[in-house]
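Work package 3, deliverable 3.1, input record:
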Amino acid sequence: MQMPLPSAKVLAEKALIVKRLRAFLPRDSVIDDPAETRAYECDALSAYRCAPLAVVLPRTTAEVAACLRLCHQMGVPVVPRGAGTSLAGGSMPSADAVVLGLARMNRVLEVDYANRFIRVEAGRTNLSVTGAIEGEGWFYAPDPSSQLACAIAGNIGMNSGGAHCLKYGVTTNNLLGVTLVTMQGEVVEIGGPCCDAGGLDLLGVVCGSEGQLGVVTEATLRILRQPEGARPVLIGFSSNEVAGACVADIIRAGILPVAIEFMDRPCIEATEAFCHAGYPDCEALLIVECEGSPAEIAEQLGLIRQIATGHDPVEFREAQSPEEAKRIWLGRKSAFGAMGQKGDYMCLDGTIPVSALPMVLRRIGEISREFGLEVGNVFHAGDGNMHPLIIYNANVPGQQELCERMGAEILKLCVEVGGCLTGEHGVGIEKRDLMTVQFAPADLEAQMRVKDVFDPKWLLNAAKVFPLDVSASRRG
Amino acid sequence: MKVESEKALVEAVRGATRPLRIVGGGTRPVGALAGDPLQVAISGISLYEPGALTLIAGAGTPLSEIEAAVAAEGQRLPFEPARWGAVLGAAGESTIGGVVAANVSGPRRVQAGACRDSLIGLRFVDGTGAVVKNGGRVMKNVTGYDLVKLMAGSWGTLGVLSEVAFKLLPAAPAQATLVMDVPLTEAAKVLAAALGSQFDVSGAGWLPGVGAIVRIEGLEQSVTYRAGRLCDVLAAWAPKVMREDGAGLWRDLAEVTPFHGRPGDLWRFSVKPSDGPQVAARLGGQAVLDWGGGLVWALVAPGTDARRLAAPYAGHATCLRGAFAAFEPEAAPVAALSRGLRARFDPKGLFNPGKMG
Ligand SMILES: Cc1cc2nc3c(=O)[nH]c(=O)nc-3n(C[C@H](O)[C@H](O)[C@H](O)COP(=O)(O)OP(=O)(O)OC[C@H]3O[C@@H](n4cnc5c(N)ncnc54)[C@H](O)[C@@H]3O)c2cc1C
Ligand SMILES: Cc1cc2nc3c(=O)[nH]c(=O)nc-3n(C[C@H](O)[C@H](O)[C@H](O)COP(=O)(O)OP(=O)(O)OC[C@H]3O[C@@H](n4cnc5c(N)ncnc54)[C@H](O)[C@@H]3O)c2cc1C
């Protein structure tokens, strides 16, 4: 992965930069010892690593603003970081960068049930947002699988999704406002608990901007009442095509499940071997989850059974008890771990129109044979967000490159059928160089203009998202 | 000038020597109306896949054409776009581009989100005449910056939309409306109790002469069940349940029917829902509340500075009809960013000059 050469001037000024940071930050908020900065050298895309110049862990918005002001003045690149679970290299540093971590800003600032929002410091983990309100029967809807670890800051950076976004939307649909500190150190309040912010929708463009427009220090989030209950059903099919057709029919029938998850044969076999969830021996299976009171769930599942029966399922298994529900989800939830047993894996994240599902799965099978690497598919079928997992062996020279080339083939296919490179993980460095597959020069130019406005010197996370040659003239 | 294709639109923008006033259907005459009219008549549905809940259409497509097409498949635009023509006294048919440019969202916003939340892709022509596409036709997409949201609600000041793509939802087979005869002052409390319940409320407003109204939609048995449970939650306000909206209460709310043909200046306040009744009262009480109280439509005597009258309030006000700036001035740092964006997207200042500040 190509990264820009670090600035020699910044590297040479390290001691001065650290000294000036220490002038206004407590001692334990500035890390410059190479033994300790190593802990920040990568995110969950751990194939790529680079220790930063220094790490700062401020405790207040004012401290964040002071750090950014100083870095701006001294021309030091900054990489914002939440919990570092990005799968795209979004929070990977460069050697001349100060990593600005939000880990110490994790307080709940305000809970307002009457107006249905919570305001938190952005370093708070996703799950602990719900943790703060579940006692009263409320929850925060976006639920990435990494929710135990990942921070709201990173969720906003990547506009993250989750298993239940078919019904509740992704981060951007549940974000009401942010406190954003620009690279110049200016504190900007965008949006808030009112329905409309008025003016241009800056909040919409900040969410998903991968730490390139500013540092989010606080967030106002929409909260919802927990439903009365939820229950999954597992449906096995004799082919991917039939499973795909069943998904389309469920959607057309006007039923809106909270989740429709899809697994193909390689993935089913791997999870069976790994966790013995008792899945049927079939080509494809769907897990469909419905919410509400017992009677409401029964009504929805009744309709789903009717539709599924028309597709001649190999198996239709309704969870009759919480234990059965758990077993149905067990395989799905262990899928990544199960595939991991087979070797190293790369997780793709392209989205396709659901109508293209059978064709795309067939093509992925062909690509897999062509490259000689195994692939399993487990994904959110309701919204077409695929997660092909390619198995490779990092210790075999050349396999990682082979795997990356194969991944690129699959992502190009997603774009070709009308989809996109990434549905929830973000571009980061991982998909940066594929952006020209999806976007024309004018499309990228329009996006880069937004960064020009927020961060004229291109100091914030600048080597991400846009292909390096495309952003070269701006990065100076 | 009227353009019927993206190509013609590009030519019109490249050839423009004077500012343009971007016109869709001309039904939302809000804010400064300066410039030569450029009517976007790029019309027609180019893709509709009911099984994938997606639709793509030219920005000049009449809203009614889109609504009819999706209704025929038992689907709908989730955000319940309302027509403002009647309340603003403007004739004409709304276009989908105008709906997007104004981020028009009706009562269902409290459940299904605003127009911007259903918008998944678009194409537009910027002030240099370049065609830009963003988003696409899939529901989950974080590839690059989300200019889709930025364009929604930009009132034609960043570029001229040529095409828009939406995520749709199935239309609900059944609905129920709970009506409670409560005064304006108590409305937000009632609506908060409903919206804070487990019963998935899809509309919560207050209409003069009617009272608080709360809507539930979904499958038949589910609606019956939830309406019953919600009646228990709201028992203190003695709700009456209507299974049909024969009177068109939800249309009245979306289109602000109580104010049709009435004299006076028309304002829209976006505030914290619990502040709604108070703001409405300070404005004289001629009000309609939507979004649980978070949206206040108010009719005031001509020439009244409603912003001053309502102060102090957290939120913002739009003057839809009256001699005041349509959009409220933004806090300095936000205004600077917005100005910067407009200058980058429309460097010659061609589009709807002065509309948003
Ligand atoms: C096992 C596993 C499962 C996962 N499952 C999912 C899933 O189901 N759905 C999903 O969407 N993702 C998933 N992810 C990806 C990842 O967890 C998400 O992208 C998450 O939102 C990242 O949060 P973070 O706090 O770790 O952010 P980081 O990795 O620290 O940062 C992510 C991005 O946000 C930026 N950023 C961080 N903090 C700020 C800030 N304060 N201001 C502005 N920008 C900032 C960073 O610069 C970076 O570009 C998964 C990852 C793993 C490892
Ligand atoms: C040819 C013509 C000439 C007119 N001349 C006059 C006149 O001289 N004086 C007068 O008072 N009224 C005139 N009108 C009425 C006029 O249309 C409205 O008063 C006013 O322009 C508001 O309509 P609108 O387009 O804003 O409404 P809508 O179509 O509802 O649009 C709402 C908002 O969206 C923007 N918008 C609409 N479509 C797009 C798009 N595709 N891309 C980007 N932004 C968009 C608009 O600029 C506006 O800000 C005229 C109408 C037409 C069709």
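The pocket of flavin-adenine dinucleotide (ligand 1) is lined by residues A 43-44, 79-87, 90-91, 102, 122, 144-146, 150-151, 153-155, 157-158, 160-162, 210-211, 215-216, 424-425, 461 (CB under 6 Å).
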